């Protein structure tokens, strides 16, 4: 009996091994496919701005004496803007690597959301230019346990998207409210909104709804960074469409930290 059981066990182990080998091969193929897609996408995102920079710099060098001042300024502006785009892309990639490697340890502190919104808005001022910012942030909200740098980056990405994907003079709304032990923050706009099938996928790295959208410079990384950072700080983020108006709305939910006991209370 013992030998029969041992044989059976050996057979079962062999079968499990076989299944896991097949699974492993499948996983490897999937990882390889993703890696290739990732590299293709990154190469494209690096090459496009580089080509513009090289073209403009080349023209400036070759025709230095014959270019009118206006045209020269245009070429210089292209070089600066495309370098900024490259810089943003590389920063995004570094943020992604930090999330992916699990090397990201948030630097927590207690902060008022309103203060962080203020910092993010100041940083985004150049981008939000023609948009009116509609803020509804109560002053009596509890403090949140967040990493202010990460939280500001999340807000900046959402405000950047709202400004980028909605017509230049339309308002952008930022609302904060307290509900069922959590602080909610929403960023809404009057742009085209997001197709229902894409509401989850837009948080994937490199996913863009309008893939051929070359008007709005983008990497498809902003929202996956938002989700990575928010979840690393114990919160959640989702995308939706407004019900009162055409446009997108992104909502962050952060737990309110428990109130620490006041020292000396026991006496
Ligand atoms: P990027 O903006 O660089 O493409 P994101 O990860 O920030 O990358 O966003 C992914 C995609 O989600 C965008 O390409 C766009 O299609 C869509 N999206 C994001 N924010 C909005 C918004 N406010 N309105 C409409 N579409 C949006």
UniProtKB/TrEMBL annotation:
Residues 41-258 form the Histidine kinase domain. It comes from the Bacteria. It is found in: Membrane. This is histidine kinase.
């Amino acid at each position: 009996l013992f030998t029969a059981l041992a044989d059976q066990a050996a057979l079962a182990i062999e079968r499990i091994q076989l299944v896991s080998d097949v699974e492993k091969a499948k996983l490897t193929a999937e990882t390889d496919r993703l890696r290739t897609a990732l590299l293709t996408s990154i190469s494209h995102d690096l090459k496009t701005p580089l080509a513009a920079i090289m073209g403009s710099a080349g023209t400036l060098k070759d025709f230095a004496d014959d270019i009118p001042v206006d045209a020269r300024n245009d070429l210089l502006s292209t070089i600066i803007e495309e370098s900024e785009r490259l810089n943003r892309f590389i920063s995004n990639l570094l943020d992604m690597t930090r999330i992916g490697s699990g090397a990201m340890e948030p630097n927590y502190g207690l902060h008022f959301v309103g203060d962080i919104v203020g910092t993010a808005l100041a940083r985004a001022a150049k981008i939000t230019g023609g948009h009116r910012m509609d803020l509804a942030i109560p002053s009596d909200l509890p403090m949140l346990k967040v990493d202010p740098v990460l939280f500001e980056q999340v807000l900046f990405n959402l405000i950047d998207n709202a400004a980028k994907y909605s017509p230049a003079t339309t308002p952008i709304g930022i609302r904060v409210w307290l509900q069922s032990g959590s602080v909610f923050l929403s960023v809404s706009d009057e742009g085209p909104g997001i197709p229902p099938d894409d509401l989850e996928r837009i948080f994937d790295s490199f996913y863009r709804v309008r893939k051929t959208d070359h008007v709005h410079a983008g990497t498809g990384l902003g929202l996956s960074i938002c989700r990575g950072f928010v979840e690393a700080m114990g919160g959640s983020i989702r995308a939706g469409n407004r019900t009162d108006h055409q446009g997108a709305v992104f909502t962050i939910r952060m737990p309110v930290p428990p109130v620490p006991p006041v020292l000396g209370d026991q006496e």
